[in-house]
């Protein structure tokens, strides 16, 4: 079987060690010859890189491993770029959350004004990585799961239409894992789904058991209308802070009861609830820094000091196997059916053909072939039209350096009550993002 050379962009990410363990556990179907980490923050990446070097030496000495901040070294001779960068890191994510909250609006990593601010930072970072890939390894594919995926994907569509970039998100995967548990199945792979929407903004319209064709929607509707996605099997496996998000799916289902919803509609359909349950002095970033970042970096430093990872507490990031599914689909032409963020192009018949939508695709060596999802109802379509306009206006603002477009984008979000509030949030975000955003005039 062909061995692959992979570079992980955003090597200093808190997700890197468990993704590396996952890649090693999947070598049976996706063998590696070389694994490199790339980041533009040498100090942060070294914490992760030094520990991963020990893990690789002990568990996969046959795979050449290195980490670097030099693009040429990182991107030369690779088959796949797996990208999970966070431009501005947690310091800026914190402001994305806190600035909108100050004005009584949802402050969240990818939703609302904070997500738009993050988008304005991410576009340049992701495009730069595509450029490096195309310069040093023109035949490589980039599997991008850097957020905010919707805005990044629209920027790729507009500015890199011919690049080999696939935008994918783990949120539907995570929810499908829960759905499988609710239905008493061992794996989400036993299900076949139909889904339509935008990233972090979509619905399952059909879920059947693959082997028998059994309709699983009635079981799911019954369960979710009472409990949301909060299933007992998640106890101890899911961050406690996520419980309310899973639970709230119950109320999201109530307003569009024919389809199973993505959890992030919480931010768009219940913004007042979200704001009243937020603490501006301790937002999700603070939780992630006190939780995942401390745990991962603490463990990395411990491994490096001990000089061995034999007793490491890192677990295989099992749920990230979707990344290998995608790489295998390209490399081995598996024709796997997966949800990807792709140009609509008629798949959702009564929706903007130029929108980046999240829909099932058959993925093979030439990339994704999107499936037709047909016509969608007015309520869901209306919500999507508003949100896709927000995402497109942010990309317009980035390309044109337009203050007006960014103001319109924030004003149009369901999470912001008025044009006046939008302006106040925007002006403060501009100040905070001086180092990262193009100048807006
Ligand atoms: P993190 O801050 O721990 O790591 C991100 C790394 O990216 C940092 O080390 C940073 O230095 C680096 N970076 C920033 N700008 C860069 C650039 N221009 N070039 C190279 N490296 C750069 O963040 P995290 O919490 O681990 O999240 C990483 C990313 O993955 C985020 O975008 C997050 O939203 C995303 N994510 C996506 C999914 C998904 O499935 N879509 C799931 C989880 C996380
Ligand atoms: C994270 O940092 O974990 C996010 O990507 C999602 C979350 O849990 O807020």
Helix and strand composition category: alpha/beta
Q: Can you summarize the main beta sheet?
A: 6 strands, parallel
Order of helices and strands: EHEHEHEHHEHEHEEHHEHHHHEEEHHH
Number of strand segments:
12
In percent, how much strand structure appears in the residues?
Answer: 15-25%
How far is it from the N-terminal to the C-terminal residue, by CA? Answer: 53 Å
Q: Whole-number average pLDDT?
A: 97
Give the spatial strand order of the biggest sheet. Answer: 3-2-1-4-5-6
**What is the overall silhouette?**
globular
Detail the poorly predicted runs: none
The kinds of small molecule bound in this structure are:
nicotinamide-adenine-dinucleotide, (2S)-2-hydroxybutanedioic acid
Which assembly state applies to the chains in this document? single chain
Helix content: 40-55%
Radius of gyration: 21 Å
Q: Would you spell out the secondary-structure blueprint of this structure?
A:
Layout: E1 4-9, H1 16-25, E2 32-38, H2 42-59, E3 64-68, H3 71-75, E4 80-83, H4 89-102, H5 112-136, E5 141-144, H6 149-159, E6 165-167, H7 171-182, E7 191-198, E8 201-209, H8 217-227, H9 243-255, E9 260-261, H10 265-269, H11 271-276, H12 284-306, H13 321-331, E10 336-343, E11 356-364, E12 367-370, H14 378-400, H15 403-412, H16 419-432
Parallel strand pairs: 1-2, 1-4, 2-3, 4-5, 5-6
Antiparallel strand pairs: 7-8, 8-9, 10-11, 11-12
């Amino acid at each position: 079987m062909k061995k692959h050379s992979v570079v992980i962009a955003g090597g200093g990410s808190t997700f890197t060690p468990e993704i590396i363990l996952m890649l090693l556990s999947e070598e049976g179907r996706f063998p590696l010859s070389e694994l490199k980490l790339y980041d533009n923050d040498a100090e942060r990446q070294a914490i992760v890189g030094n520990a991963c070097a020990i893990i690789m030496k002990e568990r996969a000495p046959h795979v050449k491993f290195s980490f670097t901040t030099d693009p040429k070294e990182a991107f030369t001779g690779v088959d796949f770029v797996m990208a999970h960068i966070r431009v501005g890191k947690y310091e800026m994510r914190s402001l994305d959350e806190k600035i909108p909250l100050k004005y009584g609006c949802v402050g969240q990593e990818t939703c609302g004004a904070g997500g738009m601010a993050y988008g304005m930072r991410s576009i340049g970072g992701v495009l730069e990585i595509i450029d490096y890939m195309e310069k040093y390894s023109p035949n490589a594919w980039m599997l991008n799961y850097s957020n905010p995926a919707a805005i990044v994907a629209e920027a790729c569509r507009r500015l890199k239409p011919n690049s080999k970039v696939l935008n994918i998100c783990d949120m539907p995967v995570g929810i499908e894992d829960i759905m499988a548990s609710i239905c008493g199945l061992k794996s989400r792979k036993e299900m076949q789904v139909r889904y339509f929407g935008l990233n972090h903004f979509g619905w399952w319209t059909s879920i059947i058991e693959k082997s028998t064709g059994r309709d699983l929607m009635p079981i799911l509707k019954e369960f979710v209308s009472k409990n949301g996605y909060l299933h007992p099997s998640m106890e101890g496996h899911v961050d406690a802070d996520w419980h309310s998000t899973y639970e709230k799916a119950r109320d999201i289902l109530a307003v569009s009861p024919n389809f199973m919803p993505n959890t992030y509609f919480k931010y768009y359909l219940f913004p007042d609830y979200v704001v009243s349950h937020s603490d501006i002095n301790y937002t999700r970033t603070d939780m992630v820094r006190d939780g995942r970042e401390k745990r991962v970096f603490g463990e990395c430093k411990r491994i490096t000091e001990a000089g061995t990872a034999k007793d490491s507490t890192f677990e295989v990031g099992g749920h990230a196997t979707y990344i290998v599914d995608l790489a295998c689909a390209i490399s081995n032409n598996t024709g796997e059916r997966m949800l990807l963020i792709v140009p609509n192009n008629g798949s959702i018949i009564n929706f903007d053909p130029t929108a980046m939508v999240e829909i099932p695709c058959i993925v093979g060596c030439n990339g994704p072939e999107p499936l037709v999802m047909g016509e969608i109802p007015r309520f869901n379509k209306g919500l999507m039209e508003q949100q896709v306009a927000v995402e497109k206006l942010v990309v317009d603002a980035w390309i044109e350096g337009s203050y007006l477009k960014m103001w319109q984008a924030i004003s149009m979000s369901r999470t912001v009550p008025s044009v006046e509030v939008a302006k106040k949030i925007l002006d403060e975000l501009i100040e905070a993002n001086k180092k990262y955003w193009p100048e807006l005039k």
